[in-house]
């Protein structure tokens, strides 16, 4: 009887063995399924149903924009009419996060966009279908291959009084400001010139031709990509930051040398 009970105890399985086998099986099954799903997703062509339609844009507009701009784009006391603004203006305002407006102020600040790119394009397409306006330019206008020197001259004449000659932005009246353009995309540079958001004037083709706009965009792209030839930019804010630098470090160095000479003589 003793031998029989010992043999049974030696052949008994651990109570965790079944759980371990189930866990291993689930891991293997999940890994195979995940790999197969990824392979199918990589080889499958994008479905047309994944692209939002104008009707989807209408629903998004009614849910997020109509409170201020009206169900039919007619405007309300809280927001202007969108008749004729076009899809270019809508894309600019939504993609830069200026709209939807979080709170009233001197001007709408740029922030992270609330909508995805597909949603923005759908809302813009709905506005364009309801009340057409300025639309996207030819890719050539945004390619950065224009005349950089001519574009820089045009920028100094038409834009530098607000945006600074180095496109660093600047203060305006009543708490408003012209934003820096160091990270602005070529499309949004063009959109700002054509649609005139907030304090920006509208530059029609009578003011600046398409070639002029292309040259200005090319000059700004050059500023974004090239390092300053003059060394430290000090924020590109002109004599204010330069004078402060000279006052602190230049005069500070002279005072330090004077104190050192005086201490030496004593």
Automatic annotation (TrEMBL):
Binding annotation for heme c 2: 159, 162-163
Chain coiled-coil ranges: none
Record carries keyword rRNA processing: no
Alphabetic keyword roster: Cell membrane, Electron transport, Heme, Iron, Membrane, Metal-binding, Repeat, Respiratory chain, Translocase, Transmembrane, Transmembrane helix, Transport
Domain of life: Bacteria
Transmembrane stretches, start-end: 244-263
PANTHER family the record matches: CBB3-TYPE CYTOCHROME C OXIDASE SUBUNIT FIXP (PTHR33751), CYTOCHROME BC1 COMPLEX CYTOCHROME C SUBUNIT (PTHR33751:SF13)
Name of protein: Cytochrome bc1 complex cytochrome c subunit
Organism: Microbacterium immunditiarum
């Amino acid at each position: 009887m003793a031998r029989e009970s010992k043999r049974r105890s030696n052949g008994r399985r651990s109570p965790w063995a079944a759980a371990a086998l189930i866990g291993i099986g689930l891991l293997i099954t999940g890994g195979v399924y995940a790999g197969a799903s990824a392979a199918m997703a990589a080889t499958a062509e994008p479905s047309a149903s994944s692209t939002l339609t104008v009707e989807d844009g209408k629903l998004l507009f009614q849910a997020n924009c109509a409170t201020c701009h009206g169900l039919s784009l007619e405007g309300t006391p809280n927001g202007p009419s969108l008749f004729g603004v076009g899809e270019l203006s809508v894309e600019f305002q939504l993609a830069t996060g200026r709209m939807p407006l979080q709170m009233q102020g001197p001007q709408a600040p740029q922030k992270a966009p609330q909508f995805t790119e597909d949603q923005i394009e759908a809302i813009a397409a709905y506005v364009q279908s309801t009340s057409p306006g300025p639309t996207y330019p030819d890719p050539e206008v945004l390619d950065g291959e224009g005349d950089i020197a001519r574009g820089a001259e045009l920028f100094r004449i038409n834009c530098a009084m607000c945006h600074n000659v180095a496109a660093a932005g600047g203060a305006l009246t009543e708490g408003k400001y012209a934003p820096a353009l160091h990270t602005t995309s070529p499309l949004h540079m063009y959109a700002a010139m054509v649609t005139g958001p907030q304090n920006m004037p509208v530059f029609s083709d009578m003011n600046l031709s398409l070639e002029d706009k292309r040259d200005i965009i090319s000059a700004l792209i050059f500023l974004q990509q090239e390092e300053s030839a003059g060394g430290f930019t000090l924020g590109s804010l002109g004599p204010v930051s330069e004078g402060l630098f000279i006052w602190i470090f230049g005069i500070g160095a002279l005072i330090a040398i004077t104190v050192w000479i005086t201490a030496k003589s004593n």
